[in-house]
Design brief:
Jelly Rolls, 26% strand
């Protein structure tokens, strides 16, 4: 039998996450009602790089790692995910395969929000929809800024042109 969710505790938790920032009480209740709780054991994968995605997740508890295969085939950890973080949102925006895998490092409870839910939000509450998209965009900008800093540090240490980006056309979805 599924465990009953304490909606007020869940709402308080989600109010502290960047994904739900700025939403009013009724908007929060509507989004909380859309989420589905998923649990994952240590060592399991939430999804794999290259999978077609149709949902994103908010970490309620546990620890996870976003992992991508390097050219050598060896996995590279891109970021750690902990309570309050969200991931998988890029597939809600660009409709491309998952750019990385997510490995559960410590038993995790996640809240899933699907593209269908996001579309329903668009149809029923445009203001909440816009706030959610702004929150996603803010987080993507933060991640891009962090990645740029890391790339700069790597380039400085390498001391050569290895990190020079030359692409100007459309990106390969595998990159």
């Amino acid at each position: 039998m599924p465990r009953m969710r304490d909606v007020s505790d869940l709402t308080r938790f989600l109010e502290q996450t960047p994904f739900f920032g700025g939403l009013g009480p009724s908007q929060m209740r509507g989004l909380v009602a859309m989420t589905v709780e998923r649990t994952f054991a240590k060592g399991s994968m939430v999804f794999n790089e290259g999978d077609q995605g149709s949902s994103m997740y908010v970490v309620q508890s546990g620890e996870l790692a976003a992992v991508r295969s390097g050219e050598s085939g060896r996995p590279v950890k891109l970021m750690r995910l902990s309570p309050g973080d969200f991931f998988g949102e890029t597939t809600l925006i660009e409709m491309q395969p998952r750019p990385f895998s997510v490995l559960v490092e410590k038993h995790a409870r996640l809240l899933e929000l699907s593209t269908r839910d996001l579309y329903r939000l668009y149809q029923t509450d445009m203001q909440a929809y816009v706030l959610v998209l702004q929150n996603i965009n803010r987080e993507l900008c933060r991640r891009l800024r962090r990645a740029s800093r890391r790339l700069t540090e790597y380039a400085e240490r390498a001391g050569d042109e290895l990190t020079l980006i030359r692409e100007t056309g459309p990106l390969d979805p595998k990159t």
